[in-house]
Structure to design on (269 residues):
């Protein structure tokens, strides 16, 4: 991700040009939720503006909730989808618990499409970010460091989503992952996997990673969908244990998962 030097304009405030550039980088996925902006001194040099103009732009971006302050004078990119995607869906699920099934089906469709498009469109920089996310996930899985596995899992999938360069997919995926992650932690304990499950999930993530890196778009989509079918079975198991869904609803989840797999070219493993 590169910031472009700002040219001086007589009728446009430099702070407006700076804030527009940062908004555009966020929209394109080149600045991801949670990513830290460079230090103020470094950023002003990259943008070729005074620190006063930069500070004015950062204040406006924070007020508009594109960035949030963190630490002493630092800023990170906000997840601007939480309010528009996660919150309405979370409210829907509270009012109608069976809607969580719909969210899982939506995620399956989005993940498959995102993985296929990312494989076709990923730049070298995108692939570096995907590789870094996967290697971090693998390292923490092999070290049996479970505290942040859910976050590292999401980071891997969101790095793939960012490589689509599709604004709508990037932001919907961010919102969905935030909602799913919160739901899993609070309601189902779905990330308290046993060791065999953790290693199987890692194997599936590696399969997705390999297909994306090799440029096999169809194989990448199929790998992502098979991964989510397996996640669906884990959800079913926990939901059944907690009595949250009827047998008919659980059967419906399974049928939907298999239908997606068949459309992608084969039976799930």
């Amino acid at each position: 991700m590169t910031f472009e030097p700002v040219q001086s304009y007589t009728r446009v405030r430099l702070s407006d040009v700076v804030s527009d550039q940062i908004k555009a980088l966020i929209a394109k996925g080149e600045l991801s939720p949670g990513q830290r902006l460079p230090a103020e001194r470094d950023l002003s040099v990259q943008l070729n503006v005074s620190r006063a103009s930069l500070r004015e732009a950062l204040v406006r971006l924070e007020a508009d909730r594109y960035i949030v302050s963190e630490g002493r004078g630092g800023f990170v990119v906000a997840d601007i989808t939480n309010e528009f995607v996660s919150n309405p869906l979370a409210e829907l699920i509270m009012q109608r618990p069976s809607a969580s099934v719909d969210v899982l089906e939506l995620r399956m469709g989005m993940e498959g499409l995102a993985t296929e498009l990312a494989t076709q469109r990923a730049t070298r920089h995108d692939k570096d970010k995907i590789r870094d996310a996967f290697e971090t996930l693998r390292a923490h899985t092999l070290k049996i460091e479970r505290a942040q596995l859910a976050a590292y899992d999401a980071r891997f999938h969101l790095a793939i989503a960012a490589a689509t360069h599709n604004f709508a997919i990037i932001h919907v995926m961010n919102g969905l992952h935030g909602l799913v992650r919160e739901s899993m932690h609070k309601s189902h304990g779905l990330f308290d996997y046993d060791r065999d499950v953790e290693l199987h999930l890692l194997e599936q993530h590696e399969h997705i990673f390999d297909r994306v890196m090799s440029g096999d778009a169809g194989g990448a989509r199929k790998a992502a969908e098979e991964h989510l079918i397996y996640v669906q079975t884990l959800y079913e198991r926990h939901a059944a244990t907690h009595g949250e869904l009827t047998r008919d609803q659980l059967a419906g989840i399974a049928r939907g998962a298999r239908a997606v797999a068949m459309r992608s070219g084969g039976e799930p493993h």
In short: Strands lie at 67-70, 74-77. The two ends are 38 Å apart (CA to CA). The chain has two domains: 14-77, 83-264.
